[in-house]
Amino acid sequence: MSAPTTEPQATEKGFYGWLDKRYGITPLIEFLKHKEVPVGAHSLLWYYLGGLTLFFFTIQLVSGVLLLAYYQAGETTSYESIRFLTTKVPFGWLVRSMHCWSAHLMILSLVTHMFSTMVLKAYRPPRELTWVTGFLLFALALGFGFSGYLLPWNELAFFATAVGTDSMKAVPVIGEWVMQVMRGGPDVSINTLYRFFALHVVVLPLFTVGIVAGHLIFIQRQGMAPPMAHQKAEKRGMKFFPDFALRDLLLWLICLIALASLAVFLPYGPGIPGMEWELGKKANPLAPAYPGIKPEWYFLWVYQLLKEFPPHLLGMEGPQAAIALVSVLFGIWALVPWLDRKARADRPSPAFTDLAMAALIFLAYLTMKAWDIGGGGAAQPDPRTVARICAYWGLLLAAATVVIRLLMHGAPYFDLTAAAALQIALHGLAGLPYLTAGAIVVALLAASLTWRVFRSRDAAHAAPGGQP
Amino acid sequence: MPDCGARTNRRSILDLLLGAGLLGWVGSVIFPVIRYLKPLGAQAQNGPVKLGAEDLAKLEKDHAVIVRAGAARIIVLEDANQRLHALSAKCTHEGCTVRYVPGDSVIWCACHNGRFDLDGRVLAGPPPRPLEKYACQREEGAVIVQLGRGPEAA
Questions:
Q1: Long-range pairs for A319-322 at CB < 8 Å and ≥24 separation?
Q2: Residues of A in contact with B96 (CB under 8 A)
Q3: Which of A430, B29, B35, B72 has the greatest count of CB atoms below 10 A from its CB?
Q4: Cβ contact (<8 Å) for A289 and B67?
Q5: Neighbouring residues of B101: CB distance < 8 A, sequence distance ≥ 6
Q6: Is residue A176 part of a domain?
C-alpha cells in the first residue's frame, strides 16, 4: 500500500475518524470491501486450507509461549521439566497436548493446501512466488517438527535427531560442517538441544512470520487464484468481507473444538507410530536404539527410503544417494511453476495433476511400508508380506485417483500415476527390490516421454499451422 | 565527450571500491559467525578405556554394555564362547546406537534394520561400512579396551 499523497479527509468523528486522519485507513477498508474470492465449479473448500494452516500456526505460537513458562533446556532439566509440566502443573498436560496435536494438524492442513494448489494449478503466473514462499513455509514447518522433537530430551527424540542430523553428512563439501554446527559437537549431546531450542523458539518463528507476511501480501495484491475454467467463463465471486471471512471464522471455531476434543481425549496422540508423544524414557546416549523406533509420520517416507537404499549406489554411500534423491524431488517440487509450461500459457496441464497424484501414491506407499501395514503387529514382520499388502492398498489408491480424475476431467495423461503404480506392483507383487523396480519404471517413463515428443513433432510436421 | 568518459571511469572506480568494501564488510561479519557456530573439537581419547564396576555388572547381566570413550561410544560384548569384543556402537548408516542380540550372535541397529557380525562386518541392511573394531581383553578381572584400530580390526 503506498501512502496517500494528500491529507485524507476525515469526515467521520470518533476513534475511526481520528485514526483515518492520521493513517488514511479508508483506502484499506475500500480494498477489503471490494476483495472477492473466486467461485467456480470446483469446491470452495480448497480456499480455506491456507487460512486453516495459519490458524494452527497461531495455536502453536500461543501454546508454545505457554510451554516456555515451565520448560527449562538442560541435561538435568529438559526431560524433568516436561514431566513436571504434564504431571503436576494444572492443565500442563493440556497445553502440551494442544501443542502436539496442533503441530500434526498444521502439517496435515499445510500438505493438503500444497497438494490442492498443485492440482488447481494456482501457482501459474503471476503467482509463482506465492508457490515458492509456500514451499519455504513447508520446509520451515518440517524444521519446526524436527527441532521441536528433541526438546523433551527423551529416547525417541535422541535417535530421531541422531538420524536427522547424520543425514546432513550427505551434503557435498559443507555437509560435515553443517552436521557439526547443528549438533554443537561430533555427536548429538545436550549442546544439540541448546541449538535446537534456539532454532525452535526464535530462529524458525522469526523466519516463518516474515515469510507468512510475504505469502499473505502476495495473495492480497493478486487475489486468490481463479480456477482455470473460471477465466474463460463468466467471473463469479464471493465477497471476502464479511462472507468469506465469516466462513473462515466458523471453520476455525470448528477446528478449535476438534483440536480441544482430541487434546483432551487423546492427550498422547492417536497411538499411530509417528503420531504419538508419550514422554517415555529420558534420553541416554549410552542406550541402544529400541526396536520399533520411528520418526513422525511426515518423515516416514524418508525413513523408509533410507531403509530401501542399498549400502552403496552409483559410487555414493546408500544414505547419501537417498538424500540426493529426496533433494532432487524437493527441487522439482519447488520449481513446478516454471516447469509447467502449459499452465504458464493458461492451458490445462493434466501432466502436472498426474505428477501430484504420482507423488501422493509414492509417498503413501513408502509411509504404509514404514507403518508395517500387513505385518500383523509383529515386532519384526516379514518384509515381503508387508510390501505385498501395502502394494494392494497403493494400487487401490492409484485406481481411485484415476477414476476420480476420469469422472471429473476426463484427464488424458496418466503416465506418472501408471509409473508409480507399476513400481509398487513390481516391488510388492513381483518381489523386485524397490530401487530395481524404480529404475525399470524410470527407464519406461523416459522411453514413453521420448515417444511422445517424437509423435508430437511428427504431428506438427504433418499439419503445419493446422490443428494438432 | 572526454569529460563524460572520465566521469564514468571515476564512477566505476568508486563503485568498485564500494563493492569491495561491502564484500569485506559481509566477510568480516560472516566469518566470526561461522567460526563461532562450529563447535570446538572434542578431546580425542587414545589411551585404553577401563570398564567401571557398574559397566562390568551390566556386561555380566546383558552380555553387552555401551561405554563412552571421549566423544565415541563403544559397545563391549561377550559372545557365546565368553570371548570379548569391542566395537564402535555408532551405526555406520545414520549414527544410531547399535545393540547386541545374544540369541542370533549379531549386532543390530533398530533404526533402519542394519545387521553386523561380531567383527563388525555388515551382514544385512543399508549400513555402508563395517563397525570399527577395537582390541579388548581381560586383565586381572578388569576389562580394558584399546582405542585406535586394534590388531583384530578387519
A1: A319/A166, A319/A167, A319/A169, A319/A170, A319/B93, A319/B94, A319/B126, A319/B128, A320/A169, A320/A170, A322/A170
A2: 159, 162-163, 289, 293
A3: B72
A4: no
A5: B107, B108
A6: yes
Q: Choose the mutation target among B31, B36, B93, B116 for the interface with A, i.e. most A CBs under 10 Å.
A: B93
Give yes or no: residues A437 and A307 share one domain. Answer: no
Range of the domain at A405: 349-458
Write out chain B residues lying below 8 Å of A378, CB-based.
Answer: none
Q: Please tell me the class of the B49-146 domain.
A: mainly beta
The number of residues in chain B equals 154
Whether A306 sits inside 8 A of B99 (CB atoms) is no
Is the domain of A284 the same as that of A355? Answer: no
Nearest to A195 by CA among A166, A161, A155, A171: A161
Measuring CA to CA, how many Å separate A180 from each of A1, A174, A175, B111?
Answer: 44, 10, 9, 21
Tell me, yes or no, whether A321 and A383 share the same domain: no
Contact B66 A186 (CB under 8 A): no
Closest to A339 measured CA to CA, from A127, A126, A124: A124
Which residue, of A290, A311, A343, is where some domain finishes? A343
Residue A150 falls within a domain, yes or no?
A: yes
Could B97 and A191 be called an inter-chain contact, meaning their C-beta atoms sit closer than 8 Å?
no
Q: Smallest Cα–Cα separation from A280: which of A297, A293, A298?
A: A293
Query: Which of A296, A311, A343 is a domain's end point?
Result: A343
Band (pLDDT 50/70/90 cuts) for residue A463 is: low
Give this complex's ipTM.
0.83
**What is d(CA B131, CA B117) in angstroms, rounded to the nearest whole number?**
9
Asked if the Cβ–Cβ distance from A288 to B110 is below 8 Å, we say: yes
Predicted TM-score of the model (pTM): 0.90
Q: Can you give the pLDDT at residue A230?
A: 53
Among the partner residues B68, B93, B97, nearest to A319 by beta-carbon distance: B93
pLDDT digits (tens, 9 = 90+) for A217-257: 999 888 888 877 655 555 678 888 888 889 999 999 999 99
Task: Check A159 against B111: CB less than 8 A apart.
Answer: yes
Question: What's phi and psi for A351, nearest 5 deg?
Answer: -60, -35
Q: Is A24 helix (H, G, I), strand (E, B) or coil?
A: coil
Q: Structurally, how many domains does chain A consist of?
A: 3
Concatenated DSSP letters for A343-404?
HHTTS--HHHHHHHHHHHHHHHHHHHHHTTTTSTT-SS--HHHHHHHHHHHHHHHHHHHHHH
Letter string b/e over residues A159-178, b meaning 16 or more CB atoms within 10 A of that residue's CB: bbbbbbbbbbbbbeeeeeee
Q: Quick check: B97 and A287 CB within 8 A?
A: yes
Give the three cell numbers for residue A299.
518423515
Predicted confidence (pLDDT) per residue in A43-90, tens digit: 678 889 999 999 999 999 999 999 999 999 999 999 999 999 999 999
Measured between alpha carbons, how far is residue A154 from residues A95, A237, A285 in Å? 19, 51, 10
Size of interface A-B (CB pairs under 8 A): 92
In a domain, A467, yes or no: no
Minimum CA–CA partner of A188 in chain B: B95
Q: What residues form DSSP beta bridges with B97?
A: B90
3-state secondary structure of B107: strand
Find the helix or strand (DSSP H, E) in which B99 lies.
Answer: strand B99-101
Q: Which residues lie below 8 Å from residue A142, measured CB to CB, with a gap of 6+?
A: A107, A298, A299
Question: Rounded distance, CA A279 to CA B102, Å?
Answer: 29
Residue of B nearest to A189 (CA): B71
A239 with A285, same domain: the answer is yes
Determine the distance in angstroms separating the CA of A300 from the nearest CA of chain B, rounded to an integer: 12
